[in-house]
Amino acid sequence: MPTKYLLDENMPSLYREQLLRYRKDLIVRMVGDEGGLPKGTLDPEILCWCEENDFLLITNNRKSMPVHLVDHLAQGRHVPAIFVLRRPVDVGRVIEDLILIAEAADENEYQDCITYLPLA
Prior knowledge:
This protein is an alpha/beta fold. It has one domain (4-117). It is built from 4 helices and 5 strands, in the order βαβαβαβαβ. It has a 5-stranded parallel β-sheet with strand order 2-1-3-4-5, sandwiched between helices. α3 (65-74) links the parallel β3 and β4 (82-85). α1 crosses α4 (91-104) and α2 packs across α3. The longest helix has 14 residues, at 91-104.
């Protein structure tokens, strides 16, 4: 099954364009896409949606996402992955890392944790 990424609504669409440019088999959605989560969806709801639909979340929300993850896990829930962008952002390295993750990561390698990108 192809890797599925969800970009939160504050992520530039450039990330989707570049991911699909290099890996056409990926599924990349954004909050606000037709038929998906509407813009303005609260972070706890995004985490539930990612869990229910097996999407790995990509966000630049460094401040509140860790708190939401703790609350989500305390409810006995899980999340496939949360990838948070470091500052300053190196878009090329982030894209490379996301492609590497799609190609080489074990199925639950990033489950229930926050991983900062780029990886190194």
